[in-house]
Amino acid sequence: MLTQDVVDAVAVVLGKPIFLEQTVDERFKKTTGSFALTPDFVVIVFRGIDPQAYQMHSLFHELGHLLCRHSECIRPGTQLETETPDVVLWSEAEREAEFLAFKITSLISRKSRSVQAFG
Fold this sequence. Notes:
single chain, 119 residues
């Protein structure tokens, strides 16, 4: 299964096409991805300067939001208790999207049993 197959499958579930856009926009220095829902289509934007694997994870995270029917992706700020950042506190929506990103990645990267048996 390829990344585009996953995007196409989610588009079928949503009932509208999904368009992907890589960006190097300055506004995406701290944000790795985002999505916009319109009545007719979905646009997912992700940082084009990241390594390919991280771009895929960002894409799958945004697809996770869409599959969970989240209307927006809000990244919480970092809580500072000292001079170093503490743990980022994620919302339930962010945890759900991250879980689905992990599950999608594990499903498409799984080798067939015959490949596993022979190395």
